[in-house]
Amino acid sequence: MPRTVLTRPELLEKARKIKLLVLDVDGVLSDGKIYFDNNGLETKSFNTLDGQGLKQLKKSGVELAIITGRKSAIVERRAKELGIELLIQGREDKFVALQEILAKYPCELENIAHMGDDWPDLCVMSKVGLALGVANGHWQVKELADWISERKGGEGAVRDACDMLMLAQGTYQQALAPYVSL
Questions:
Q1: Torsions phi, psi for 90 (to 5 deg)
Q2: What does the alpha-carbon distance between residue 114 and residue 130 come to, in Å, rounded to a whole number?
Q3: In angstroms, what CA-CA distances link 19 with 26, 27, 31, 45?
Q4: Mean pLDDT of 32-60
Q5: pLDDT, tens digit, for every residue of 86-107?
Q6: Residue 133 is inside which H or E element, if any?
Q7: Cβ-contact 67, 97 below 8 angstroms
């Protein structure tokens, strides 16, 4: 059954209201692959496009949060590098985790966007103002999403979401200005 796609004006209206972007990690901020070496050390890769987009989105006034089902020192380090202080790891109960974030950063659900890729994200995506997905996400997530990046998780999908939010909120050109000569 095809999902209802938002019209561009409907998407922009929802995106203008966003004050908090909540992200999953594996499959969204990373490509979802988890590597273990012979000593049991875990590695992941993150895309610098996503990092730049997140830094600019935060500068524009949108707060950032991460809720992930796995627990990893790598994710803690990446969050710190990006200035993301709202971080909850090792939790599959993502809506309960979101309530904990909202105790620290009060925000109405309609002012929250969540970007996910698989079933554990559905409980948050179905309740927030803007549900975002990645091109290679599970079909159930894509069916629920209001907007889906053309890129895969870990390959710039988060950057696309950041750009879309800044364009909708009228902060994109201001963020870009220091990098281009006019």
A1: 70, 30
A2: 7
A3: 23, 23, 26, 27
A4: 94
A5: 999 999 999 999 999 999 999 9
A6: strand 130-133
A7: yes
